[in-house]
Design a protein that fits this description.
The structure is a single chain. By secondary structure, this protein is mainly alpha-helical. The chain is built from 5 helices and no strands. The model has no long low-confidence stretch (mean pLDDT about 95). It binds MU-OXO-diiron.
């Protein structure tokens, strides 16, 4: 069993990860509609990764005899009007998720829940990588995305991204 606040926050985090998957799926769909299949691929892989994050939390809760509470997933209501907009929104979202992970970590720290802290270490590192990857993408787009040839090449680069399962196994 875990501390009640820690398990509540982990359940909330599970919901946020599923929302992230939903949000990135919306972004993938936007790029698909616009004919940028490389950008679509990049965001579709983000969707898969976010689902993985949610399932890792699910497994962790179950492994600790905690109830998994599945709440409603909010509708991603933002509409996009430029190719840059989803990239900037994704970066802002990752920063929000990082803060959220830190909140769970802090709760675990406050009650000396070393097991949950160790579990969350992977997420802390992952968030650092996700923020960097998304920030790199925003910068690349700002440098090359306004030119048709640059956009074509960037789309091809993002189309080559391949999904890989998370390195954390529970
Ligand atoms: Fe699972 Fe990108 O946060």
């Amino acid at each position: 069993m875990l501390d009640k606040r820690v398990s509540d926050l982990l359940n909330e985090q599970l919901n946020k990860e599923l929302y992230s998957a939903y949000l990135y799926l919306k972004m993938a769909n936007y790029y698909a509609e616009e004919g940028l299949n490389g950008f679509e691929n990049w965001f579709y892989i983000q969707t898969q990764e976010e689902r993985d994050h949610a399932m890792l939390i699910r497994t962790y809760l179950l492994n600790n005899s905690e109830k998994v509470v599945l709440k409603e997933i909010a509708e991603p209501d933002k509409e996009f009007h430029s190719f840059l907009e989803p990239l900037e929104a994704a970066l802002a979202h990752e920063k929000f998720v990082t803060e959220s992970i830190h909140t769970v970590y802090e709760a675990a720290y406050n009650c000396k829940d070393f097991r949950t802290m160790q579990f969350l270490d992977w997420f802390v590192k992952e968030q650092g990588e996700e923020e960097k990857n998304t920030d790199d993408l925003v910068k690349k787009f700002q440098l090359f995305g306004s030119d048709a040839k640059g956009l074509y090449m960037l789309d091809a680069e993002l189309g080559a991204r391949v999904y890989s399962a998370p390195s954390l196994v529970l």
